[in-house]
Amino acid sequence: MFSERPDRLNGYIGTHVGAGAITPGEKSTSVIDRDATDAIFPGHPLVRITNTTHDVLIDLIYATPDNVAGQTIYQRPICLIHRDAAACLRRAVMRATEVGCRLKIFDAFRPQEAQVILWDTAPDKAYVADPRIGSNHTRGTAVDLTLADEAGQELDMGTAFDDMTSLSHHFCDKVPPLAQANRLLLMNIMESAGFRHIPHEWWHYALPEQDAYPLIASESLGTLNPMRGL
Question: Is 154 among the residues known to form the active site?
Fold first, then answer.
């Protein structure tokens, strides 16, 4: 079951779109945006996201067999994101809190090996980045997520995550009005924090200028590599 929150839409439509974006590689100077974990993992720009450090809900779909590939892809449920995206994520968390919601993350940094698996098993490759080109998830600059209410119940978005049909497109007129309103709420929260949406996946948000960020090899992550077993 999904939670209904149409009242939370007020005050967010059409405002602050794109505000808060930072230049690639720029460090945030705000105390709340700075991640103390930056200094813990040298050698790559990723920081770890947890329920306690970032006040989000985490359900890494690819760490379970219940996903579009039909298999467990990540050996460990480790959620990582580029430090620049982490700064924007903190702002998004604050904006969601202001309207009585929480962010629930399905995926963030995605190793190249995982991208290959998703490409090979995708029912429609139009919804998956070609691993020969690279995904912004593998740059650490993208996050797949939804909204939940204060009790942790997901808001109705009209489809499940990774539903590779036109029903997942923003502004699809076949989606019920409540789900459309919830998608717009999520969009305004994320874009006001500095992320950008893509037209065909309501759950996907990424930093602008993604090509300014290089792909990140999972081998550089050491024990933080989600593809690596214990």
Answer: no
Residue 228: predicted pLDDT? 85
Residue 97 near residue 144, CB atoms below 8 Å: no
Half-sphere exposure of 68 (CA within 13 A, CB side): 21
Here the CATH number for the domain that contains residue 42 is 3.30.1380.10
- The rounded mean pLDDT for the chain is 85
Q: What is the dihedral of CA 183, 184, 189, 190, to 10 degrees?
A: 70
Residue 184 lies in a domain: yes
- The number of domains in the chain is 1
- Of the candidates 113, 201, 209, 219, the residue annotated as catalytic is 201
In contact, 94 and 209? CB cutoff 8 Å: no
Tell me the pLDDT tens digit for each residue of 145-190: 999 999 999 999 999 999 999 999 999 999 999 999 999 999 999 9
Q: pLDDT for 98-142, tens place per residue? A: 999 999 999 999 999 999 999 999 888 888 999 999 899 999 999
pLDDT for residue 123: 85
Answer positive or negative: Cα dihedral of 23, 28, 34, 38.
positive
In a domain, 229, yes or no: no
